[in-house]
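Table S2 (text version). Query chain:
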Amino acid sequence: MKEEPRTVVLATLDHGDVILPEPAWCVGHADHRPDSYRVDLCHTGSEHQLTHDGELLWTASLGQAPCASRPQGRTLGVYVAQDGYARTLDPSACTTSPRPSMRTQTTSANSPPS
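Corresponding structure-token output:
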């Protein structure tokens, strides 16, 4: 028996309830506001952190805004944010790790940033 795709219903100010396909990587919409506009709806994945000596350098997560006004916003992308850290780093000392609540594996970054 084929399983139906997962969907989510999100209230919007301009289009009422909007039904969207929900990607498996999406962590949900707990912070959704019903006064949002349809173009602002987005799917967000788990955050992954790049640290050095226990200090947060970067945070990355998957993101997609299926109703975005610009076509490039509708495609799956990686959202990357930099914390306020600025130093020269030894690339072998950098590791990526998910937030403690995430269920992914920790991996090493073996190549220097480009």
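Notes on Table S2: The longest strand covers residues 55-64. Residues 7-108 form one domain.
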